[in-house]
Every structure is written in structure tokens, then in C-alpha cells.
Design goal:
5-stranded mixed β-barrel, binds 1,4-anhydro-D-erythro-pent-1-enitol, Rossmann fold, 8 helices, binds uracil, 313 residues, 2 domains, alpha/beta
């Protein structure tokens, strides 16, 4: 057996439920206090193991309202005691991100784009580490533009690819580009697909997701304040993306996948497609239709969590 297969066997055979969340920074252990500035939490002023030690599922999404809705929804779905309306924002001392804890589920907002989610993920992963959490599964619940999919289709990401369709995340560190892999956990993705088949009205596919640093020109849109290419150029680019297995485009999956992978966290990206980008650029569906589409990743992930917790067969 080659060393790579041996390596894979080794990690597959470890019991994930007992695996602590790891950080990959030797300097952290030498710090007397760690201030999670953007979450308004600190290892000195908060008892993080007591507050968060039982977290098993972390759901992140762009909008603070949507993540509050999700916290209330999962509260009802898990039939937890207390009033779902009364969930409180753990990060209320800052307006950068919001965070709700509902039983073993943490629901957090991340804003738009790679820099915003990346800051939140650094502090979230440190939080889970300081809290000594084990066997945590992370989900990004989001929206996206679809490629050749009916609006409302949910895409569970196979690989997060960059604008050149490569499964990698590039970041400037100390003036040099470093490249990290963006493969996500296949077992969790397949389990989510299985969950979708047990639900009605959640059409779901597993496919590649393209992550861009812009919503307009960066996603080949013709309707931004600037446009440096033609309609034909746009269609040719989207066709190439489609041929590379891309079925949706959003703005956070690559750094999410890269950070989960480096820290040994099982992660999944679950985004609903709001439109078919081969047919247009503007999001024309009504408010109610969009609201229902945005609930689909929540319903799917909630079913996954309920199954894992033994609430449904
Ligand atoms: C999906 O939707 C947002 C842009 O509208 C962005 O955060 C994303 O990834
Ligand atoms: N989010 C994106 O990033 N792109 C879309 O087209 C829709 C939502």
C-alpha cells in the first residue's frame, strides 16, 4: 500500500467523535490570554469549555437575520425547552458577527466574501479549540448563482474551485502566495444527499462550487457598475465553468474548505441557487420565493442534525 493510502486509512480509522478541534499555530499555546476580538469573547473573561464544550454542529451563513432564523428553527426542530423567540446573541457586544447557541448547535453569521468569513473562521476554530470541543461538523448554509440548474436547487459542494476552476485557495502571506487544498468531506456530502432524498421539495445535487472575490464582474455579470467583457465572453466563461463540473458560484466556499481541511474539521457547503446564470444576472424571484429558497439549506442541514442526534430514523 502506498504511503498516501496508508495515511488515509489511519485517519479514517480514528474515531472522529473523539477528535478535538485542532489549531495549526504553535504560538497560541504560549499566550496567556486569547482575545477573540471580532466575537467579543476571551479565554480570560469567558469560561469557553463551559459555554461551548458540548457543541457538535456549527452552521455559518452570510446574513445575521438568516442565522437568527436558523437558530430559532433548529430550536423548534430539536424540541428544546424554552421559547425559540428568546434566543440570545452571544456576540451582542459587537455588531461584526452574531452567534446563537441552541443545544449542541452553534449558528453564526459571517458576512460577505472571503476576508469576512476568514476572520470569523479563525476566531471560531480557536473558540472550538479552547472549548475542547470534539467531533464537530461545520456547515456553510448559503445562497449562490446556479449554472444550468433550476432556481431553488440546493448544491452540496464536492470541491470548491477558484476562478480558474482549480480546487485550491490562494492567499497572500508575508508578500507571497500560499496555496491550500479545498477538498471537503465526502462522507458528510453524501449523507446530506441522502437526507435530501428523504425530504420533499429539496432538489439537491453534489457538484463543484466556484468561489469568487466579487459578485459582479468576478462572477461574469453584465449588470455591475463596470463591465469589461461582452455577453459572448460571459457565456463562454460560464460554459467552461460548467464543463469543469461547476454548478454554482458564491463567495466564501474556498477559504471555508481550506480552513476546515487544515484543522481536521469535517465541513460541508450547502448553498441554494437563486437563479440560473445562463439565463440572466439579476435576481428576479419575488421576496417570498427567495425566502423559501433560503430555507432549503436550513431544512436539509436540520434533517442531517436530527438524524445524527437520533431524532429521526
Ligand atoms: C452568496 O451571496 C452573497 C452575495 O450576494 C455572498 O456572500 C455569497 O457567497
Ligand atoms: N450569491 C452569489 O455570490 N452569486 C449569485 O449569483 C447569487 C448569490
Amino acid at each position: 500500500m502506498d504511503p498516501i493510502s496508508l495515511n488515509r486509512m489511519g485517519s479514517d480509522h480514528k474515531d472522529y467523535t473523539k477528535q478535538r478541534v485542532q489549531v495549526k499555530n504553535p504560538y497560541l499555546a504560549t499566550m496567556e490570554e486569547d482575545i477573540l476580538y471580532h466575537l467579543s469573547l476571551s479565554t480570560k473573561t469567558h469560561n469557553l469549555p463551559e459555554m461551548f464544550g458540548d457543541v457538535k454542529f456549527v452552521c455559518v451563513g452570510g446574513s445575521s437575520n438568516r442565522m437568527k432564523d436558523f437558530a430559532q428553527f433548529i430550536h423548534q426542530e430539536l424540541e428544546l425547552p424554552g421559547n425559540p423567540e428568546e434566543v440570545t446573541d452571544i456576540c451582542e457586544a459587537t455588531d461584526r458577527y452574531c452567534m446563537y447557541k441552541v443545544g449542541p448547535v452553534l449558528s453564526i453569521s459571517h458576512g460577505m466574501g472571503v476576508p469576512s468569513i476568514s476572520i470569523m473562521l479563525h476566531e471560531l476554530i480557536k473558540l472550538l479549540h479552547h472549548a475542547q470541543c470534539c467531533g464537530v461538523v461545520l456547515f456553510r448554509l448559503g445562497t449562490s448563482g446556479g449554472l444550468g440548474l433550476a432556481p431553488g436547487t440546493v448544491v452540496v459542494t464536492d470541491k470548491a474551485v477558484d476562478s480558474s476552476f482549480l480546487p485550491q485557495f490562494e492567499q497572500m502571506v508575508l508578500g507571497k502566495v500560499i496555496t491550500r487544498s479545498t477538498e471537503l468531506d465526502q462522507g458528510v456530502a453524501n449523507e446530506l444527499l441522502q437526507c435530501s432524498s428523504e425530504l420533499q421539495h429539496i432538489p439537491t445535487v453534489i457538484a463543484n462550487t466556484m468561489c469568487t472575490d466579487d459578485f459582479y464582474e468576478g462572477q461574469g455579470r453584465l449588470d455591475g457598475a463596470l463591465c469589461s467583457f461582452s455577453h459572448e465572453d460571459k457565456l463562454e466563461y460560464l460554459r467552461k465553468a460548467y464543463e469543469a463540473g461547476v454548478r454554482n458560484i458564491e463567495m466564501e466556499s474556498s477559504v471555508f474548505a481550506a480552513m476546515c481541511s487544515v484543522c481536521g474539521l469535517k465541513g460541508a457547503v450547502v448553498c441554494v441557487a437563486l437563479l440560473n446564470r445562463f439565463e440572466g444576472d439579476q435576481i428576479t424571484a419575488s421576496h417570498d420565493v427567495l425566502a423559501e429558497y433560503q430555507q432549503r439549506p436550513q431544512v436539509l442541514v436540520s434533517h442531517f442534525i436530527k438524524k445524527r442526534l437520533g431524532h429521526v430514523a
